[in-house]
Amino acid sequence: MCAAPGGKSIALLQCASPGHLHCNEPDFHRSRWLQETLESFVPLPHRNVISTTELDGRLIGRTNANTYHKVLVDAPCSNDRSWLFSSDVQQAAERISQRRTLPAIQTELLRSAIAALRPGGSLVYSTCTLSQAENSAVVSNILNSCPDVLPVDLSDMANTLSHEFTFAANVTHGLLVLPHKGKAWGPMFVSKLIKL
C-alpha cells in the first residue's frame, strides 16, 4: 500500500513467489523511485507478475474489497533513524507536526488493508519508529474496532531471530526491533493480523 522505494517488494518477489504482486505508492516522486527499483532488480521476463498503482492506500479497501490474500502495510511513520542524521530545523518542525497526524493515517491504512483482504487473508503492518502511538496503539485500535481481525503471535519468529536482532520487551501485538549502533537497521515494528 506504501511500496516505495521497493526493497520489501523485491524481497517478497524473492521469497514468496507471488502469483501477482500489486505495488502501490501514492506519492508521484516515490512512485517513480519504486518503478526504477523494480526495473533495476526484476528481470524483464518476470515483470509480468507485477502491477503498480499510485492510489491513496486509504481507498484501496473500497476499490479492491476482498481481493488480496496478503497485504503489506509499510506505513508512513516518524522514521526515527532518519532523525539522527537530520540537522534541518525546518524539516524537524514539519516532522513534529506530521507526527501528530500519523497514527490516524496509519489506522486508516490498516482499515483499508483489512477491507482489501479476502477472508482468511493476512496482513503485515510495519513501521520504522519506536513510537508506541504509531505501533502497538494503532494495532490495538484496529483489534478493538474490527471483530473479524485477530493478531498472530510472532514470538517464535523473535526466538529464531534473537541472535541477529534485539527485541524490545513487553510490546503488545507485534515485535519491535531495537536500533543497533553499529549497524544500519532498526527500529522496526512488525505486526501480523488475520482476517476471519
TrEMBL record:
One of its GO terms (biological process) is rRNA methylation. It is found in: Mitochondrion. This is 5-cytosine rRNA methyltransferase NSUN4. Pfam families: Methyltr_RsmB-F. Residues 1-196 form the SAM-dependent MTase RsmB/NOP-type domain. Coiled coil: none annotated. Keywords: Methyltransferase, Mitochondrion, RNA-binding, rRNA processing, S-adenosyl-L-methionine, Transferase. GO terms for cellular component: mitochondrial large ribosomal subunit. Belongs to the class I-like SAM-binding methyltransferase superfamily. RsmB/NOP family. GO terms for molecular function: RNA binding; RNA methyltransferase activity. It catalyses: a cytidine in mRNA + S-adenosyl-L-methionine = a 5-methylcytidine in mRNA + S-adenosyl-L-homocysteine + H(+); a cytidine in rRNA + S-adenosyl-L-methionine = a 5-methylcytidine in rRNA + S-adenosyl-L-homocysteine + H(+). S-adenosyl-L-methionine binds at C2, A3, A4, P5, G6, G7, K8, E25, D56, D74. Mitochondrial RNA cytosine C(5)-methyltransferase that methylates cytosine to 5-methylcytosine (m5C) in various RNAs, such as rRNAs, mRNAs and some long non-coding RNAs (lncRNAs). Involved in mitochondrial ribosome small subunit (SSU) maturation by catalyzing methylation of mitochondrial 12S rRNA. The active site is at C128. It comes from Engystomops pustulosus. Its main location: mitochondrion.
